[in-house]
Specification:
The protein is globular, with a radius of gyration of 17 Å. It contains ten helices and no strands. It has two domains: 8-57; 60-190, AhpD-like. The longest helix is centred in the C-terminal third of the chain and has 23 residues, at 147-169. Helix 7 packs across helix 9. The chain is an all-alpha fold.
Length: 199
């Protein structure tokens, strides 16, 4: 599967490039397109990769909740690349793939717990411009999660917004990671008042 990005993919070269290419192929089966596009600016790429490594070590909030939150952001923003990778990672990390599959249409699903629904609502509310987070929703989540997990979830959603919006602006689309493990791709939910995001 190939796509045409708004900034052309760079030729990844050198020792560091070879290492990143090898790691990408080992982890995902292919070189992630964001890596190829961001290779044009190594400082941005290094910062982005470093942020990803550091946030992956956070452990105050449940991994399933964070996976659903990231998928909710990706669905709302319309980042098919993040949905593709998020579903692939949920599968490979042993998370609940059936629920992950329903995130783009979580409001119509009866399978999410009240806490999971609050997390999904919070992820979407944080991702609106301006944010639409309410005191009531925050208070419910704080009671259920505790302060450390609430802070982590909030920062996680903010980082998810950074990645999804960057990918969308650069025209980076689904790369076929989910299909590579036999999973049908997730499709972003249509946003109210606007056209459905590109799948």
């Amino acid at each position: 599967m190939t796509s045409s990005t708004r900034v052309p993919k760079a030729q990844i070269t050198g020792v560091h490039g070879a290492l990143l290419t090898r790691i990408g192929r080992r982890m995902f089966g292919d070189v992630p397109e964001p890596l190829e596009v961001m290779w044009h600016n190594r400082r941005v790429l290094t910062t982005s990769l470093g942020l990803g490594r550091r946030t992956a070590r956070w452990n105050a909030c449940d991994r399933n909740l964070k996976s659903y939150a990231h998928l909710a952001v990706a669905s709302l923003v319309g980042c098919s690349w993040c949905l593709d990778l998020g579903y692939f990672q949920a599968h490979n990390e042993g998370l609940d793939v059936d629920k992950a599959r329903q995130v783009p249409r979580w409001r119509e699903s009866a399978d999410f717990t009240p806490l999971e629904r609050d997390v999904l609502e919070y992820a979407e509310a944080m991702s609106q411009t301006p944010p639409t987070v309410t005191d009531e929703l925050s208070a419910r989540l704080l009671r259920q999660l505790g302060a450390p997990a609430m802070v982590e979830l909030t920062a996680w959603i903010a980082v998810a917004n950074q990645y999804t919006r960057t990918n969308c602006a650069l025209g980076i689309e689904a790369q076929g990671f989910a299909a590579a493990c036999g999973l049908a791709p997730l499709v972003p939910a249509a946003r109210a008042g606007g056209p459905a995001p590109r799948a």
